[in-house]
Amino acid sequence: MYDAHLHLQDDRFDNCRAAVRRAAVAAGVTGGCCCGTSPHDWPAVCALADQPSATTGFHLLPAFGVHPWYAGELPADWLTQLEALLQQYPAAPVGEIGLDGLRDHPSRAVQRQVLTAQLELAVRLQRPVVLHGARAWGDLLAALRPIAPRLPGFVAHAFGGSADIQRELLAMGGFLSFAGTVCNPAAKHVRTAAASTPAERLLIETDAPDLLPFQPKTGASAPEQTLAIPAAVNHPAQLVTIAATLAELRGVTVAELGALTTANAQLALNVVR
Ligand SMILES: [Zn+2]
Predict the structure, then answer these.
(1) 102-154 pLDDT per residue, tens
(2) What residues flank ion ligand 1 with Cβ within 5 A?
(3) Computed from CA positions of residues 94, 110, 210, 239, in that sequence, does the dihedral angle turn out positive or negative?
(4) What is the pLDDT of residues 170-209, one digit of tens each?
(5) How many helices and strands (H and E) does the chain possess?
(6) What is the largest CA-CA distance in the chain?
(7) Domains annotated on the chain, with CATH
(8) If you measure from the C-alpha of residue 82 to the centroid of ligand 1, how many angstroms do you get, rounded to a whole number?
(9) Fewer CB atoms near the end CB (10 Å): N or C, the chain?
(10) Is residue 111 within 8 Å of residue 100, measured between CB atoms?
């Protein structure tokens, strides 16, 4: 199983990162796309990406980008730094980038400027992008519309938009990735979107350490491993809970769902093993 979106560099993992990777592998989650969010955490993503997966058992694909929350506090040369990193890691997608409607700062105009610069960079380097659109899917679509035909691909992470937005993202060739919100029976529109996304465009993710699945099944990983991980911290082994919920919603087995979304992640993110 492949976690299409996580942040293993987050400092909430500082005391349990090895346990998190062990728990993931024990649960059958063999890798994930680790998204940087600002120049501050790019070095930590590099350090994780530079550890050979043979020693950790977990295949980590680094991605680099500026998350909309951090678009207002960038050094003057941020885009040059980002391009240099993407050249250094030729398999890295551009992400996590996008727009966020949950916060007023930085302003939508600043968020959009930083997003567009990164979308243009992704076009120039021909990298897939990983998009964040929380409560701003409509504006994100408007920013993406003129650029999408020139991108090699994109992923809408933790998708939670309307059916209209879902349709247009799919028409643009995008992949939709679903996080732990689908495990909440009250999240009806997210569950409908997850059930109706075509099989060939479906991804699953944890967004760890955030978006802890509703009613996590702690039995998903070995007890001695989860003990080391704080209960409030989401981690990639929880992907099993998300996969089980999605499999049920779609009427397929967990094994089928896992195989399908792993193959899709390879296409969407150009994951090289
Ligand atoms: Zn994220």
Answers:
(1) 988 999 999 999 999 999 999 999 999 999 999 999 999 999 999 999 999 99
(2) 96, 207
(3) negative
(4) 999 999 999 999 999 999 999 999 999 999 999 999 999 9
(5) 11, 8
(6) 50
(7) 2-269 (3.20.20.140)
(8) 18
(9) C
(10) yes
